[in-house]
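Help! Submission page says 'invalid entity' but I think these are all valid:
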Amino acid sequence: MKYFLLPLALFMGSVASACDLCGCSASNQFLGILPGQQWNFVGVQYQYNAFTGLFPSPFENRPKVHSTSIYQTMQVWGRYALGKHYQVFAFVPYQYNEHKQDSANVTRSGIGDITLMVNRTALDKQTGDWQQLLYAGVGIKLPTGKHDGMSVTDKSGLPNMQPGTGSVDFMANANYTLRRGKYGINADGAYTFTTPNKDDYKYGNKASAGLTGFYTKVWSSFTLMPQLGIRYEYALHDYDNYTRKWLNEQSGGYMCFMSVGAQAYYKQLGFKAVWQAPVSQRYSAGNVTAGHKAEAGIFLLF
Amino acid sequence: MKYLIVLAIMCASLCACQKKDNTTPDAANVTFTITSPTAGQVYRSGDSVRVKATIVYPSELHGYEIRVSDSATNTVVYDAAVHGHADRFDVDNAWAIGGANAMTLKLELIATIDHDGTTAGKKMNFQYAP
């Protein structure tokens, strides 16, 4: 109960002065449904996110600015068990980001920020037909990604285009799976605590939560797991200058996606594909609209 | 399950509010220093007109605009805008001037103080005599 009351008190204390929701092109690392914890795995996955923007000009008598941003990530990731209770996760992304604004195109690509996470199995329990698995942990995102630094005049649009954020960020996550026979649900939540980078730019903290139902069909050595879910993502405002608390209220926001996908396993080879469609959002003060997301990957269990 | 509930509530609490600079936007606090052109300076056809200035404000500015127009007709002959976030902008723009007719040109330097339309400006006249 004490774990419940402390955060509730924090929440109640801050509601009265809650800020407006706004948006940025934020992404967040989450785990979702994973292969059985008896396996280690290494895999490659591709992620696609697209956004369109229609921003009012900050200058008088000028037309609105149209933009399209496409974020593509190819990342190597994996999980390795340390003893019976702990698992280490690593993510090494390569980013390819495109931003088209009226007639101007900007492309940024390169190695992104490496993320390391350690999770502990908090619950692994079989009760009759019901099986529960809960793990939770923490992580760190290192500023290994290419980050050009930002001049005064490109702070308006380019921070989210950089392959790396230039900051050390910290994460907490929890992942719960409940199974009964062929059916199951997975609930996960993650929170990223960002820190300012060398330009004193601070990306907004990010939260993500998802609920996914799945079904497992086994044919000999082939397993198929279709899944259907919903995911909520929230990003606080960025700071243009964190020391001076220059809050960029045209960044941050929330998105909610419906997702449909499947995982398939053949012996020790796994495949995953997920497609997400936005169902509700308010991003970048309503100036940015998230499009569909797609994710696909293969992984090797060992 | 309690871990998930704790995490969800912590997220909600952490998403609620952020500190921000609450400086009241005040156009009078923007300081413009224009070093080029100078008032009344005369340019000939083909000359490079260089606008060199600094814009300083105690808090965050969101960009600036340079507009040069014919003071008699208000026809804009040069216009540039920069969207950025800083408490100081060093302006250094140049373009080649031309045309058959002499004009008294009005330089307007406009600083954007917020995204709600608060601006500050400074005007100055110079001459074009082909």
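Support: the input was valid. A stray whitespace character was the problem, and the output above is from the cleaned input. The first strand of chain B starts at residue 31 and ends at 36.
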